[in-house]
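ingest -> validate -> predict -> emit
validate: passed (alphabet ok, no gaps, 384 aa)
predict: started
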Amino acid sequence: MRIVHLMASPFYGGPERQMLGLARHLPGRYESVFVSFAEGGRCAPFLDQVRRGGFEAYELEHNAPRMRQAANEVARLLRKLDADVLSCSGYKPDIIGWWAARQAGIPAVSISHGWTAATWKVRVNETCDRLVIRWMDAVVCVSKAQAAKVRRAGVPDAQIAIIHNAVADEAFAPAEPQFADRLAGLFPRRPRWLVGAAGRLSPEKGFADLVEAAALALRRQPEFGFVVFGDGPLRPALTERIATLKMADRCILAGFRDDAAKYLPHLDLAVLPSLTEGLPVILLEAFAAGLPVVATAVGGIPEVVEPGVSGLLAPAGNPTALAERIVAMFGNAVDRRAWGQAGQARVRREFTFATQSVKYQQLFDRLARTKTPRQRRPAAAVVS
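emit:
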């Protein structure tokens, strides 16, 4: 069975890692192919990663706003590959992919990672996405909370599947000592306690609230050190705010690092200050690394964080509450090690790719039965 993943990948982010991780864990009878809109050439790092993983990868020539040309190109590629199912991640892949899949006579599934409403353009496209997914053959939601949003968009229950995000086995790997030294080296003076976060520096991720919360926490406990891994449009504003609050030596923007997960085991606490989420992979990675978590109660986060067991939850958009939870995690009543171990056990039990892939196999098998019958060409006839 040939599964084609249609992406719009400006960088190697969470949805890309999820779909590639799934491809690596599907049994041999499934063949995964990845296709991405060019995104001004920014899709290259992801497609390079795909090829290094041993999978076919294609960069499309056409893109929005040339919707018809783009859909026609995707449809031609689906026919050439003799695809059985088209898997779409994101609003542009959904909108163009649904159209292309209908031309090619194959079923299409939307992977609904979440809606951000980050800009007016994104809001317009996400409104279109809410309409298009009603016509998809299936919509995979990465959390129960996202499934509720998809239902409100008008998608029938029969078309919805809840399949949580997952982490790879290497997320549970032992800590590598050299990353502890690199982490400490980010600070002029080594902090007593290290609090970390990671993600795209865009409004919906709530890092502006984290900076404010860090300032409040440092007033109560100056031995904290905060580090944020990631990059994005808010970096200049965050840098300026950190300087204004005079905590440049205690709140570090470390930039995007493809090995950020290796720093996690050397933190004392992970924080997720998001304003909206589907189910953040960084949350699962933090638990896999044995960290307790303070996070906002949005999206699928409360489905994973158990307050008083593996972490604490705070209302979104409230830096004061976030700071209170961070400080509380270092009180005498909290056994951070035990909380981190509880989160790690939960993720190992419920959120691995081995568990996830079984659910996707069931979905793909069901969808493939609706494919328009055609004679499959031999593999040698597929031109890369």
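The chain has two domains: 2-166+352-377, 170-350.
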